[in-house]
């Protein structure tokens, strides 16, 4: 087995919480903070930390607005985030194919 593909895995995305956030956002244009938190059963602090890491990497955009007089935070993948996530999935597929022979 060639270990090289494992060394190429994007460490920002590879953590399970961040990979879950990226997966959910890849399937939808945007999700609110509450939708992400509830879908992933994370605490506010935990998901905030993951969102901040993904935002600092340029993978997700965070928008703050007011909806029905309440603050609303939404997240979406940036073009760079969508490409990074697709590259990550492609690399995982190569790793799986390699292990199958």
Identify the notable features of this structure and list them briefly.
single chain, 101 residues, alpha+beta, 3-stranded antiparallel beta sheet, 3 strands, 62% helix, 18% strand, elongated
Notes on the protein architecture:
This protein has 101 residues and is an alpha+beta fold. It is 62% helix and 18% strand. A 3-stranded antiparallel sheet has the order 1-3-2. A hairpin with a 2-residue loop joins strand 2 (60-67) and strand 3. The radius of gyration is 15 Å and the shape is elongated. The chain starts with a helix and ends with a helix. The model has no long low-confidence stretch (mean pLDDT 94).
Could you report the average pLDDT, rounded to the nearest whole number? Answer: 94
Which strands sit side by side, in order, in the main sheet? Answer: 1-3-2
Structural class: alpha+beta
- Strand proportion, as a percent range, falls in 15-25%
Q: Helix and strand succession?
A: HHHEHHEEH
The DSSP helix count reads: 6
Main beta-sheet strand count, sense and barrel state? 3 strands, antiparallel
The parts where pLDDT drops under 50 for at least 5 residues are none
**Overall geometric form:** elongated
Number of strands: 3
What would you report as the Rg, rounded to the nearest angstrom?
15 Å
Q: How much helix, percentage-wise, in residues? A: 55-70%
| Termini gap | 9 Å
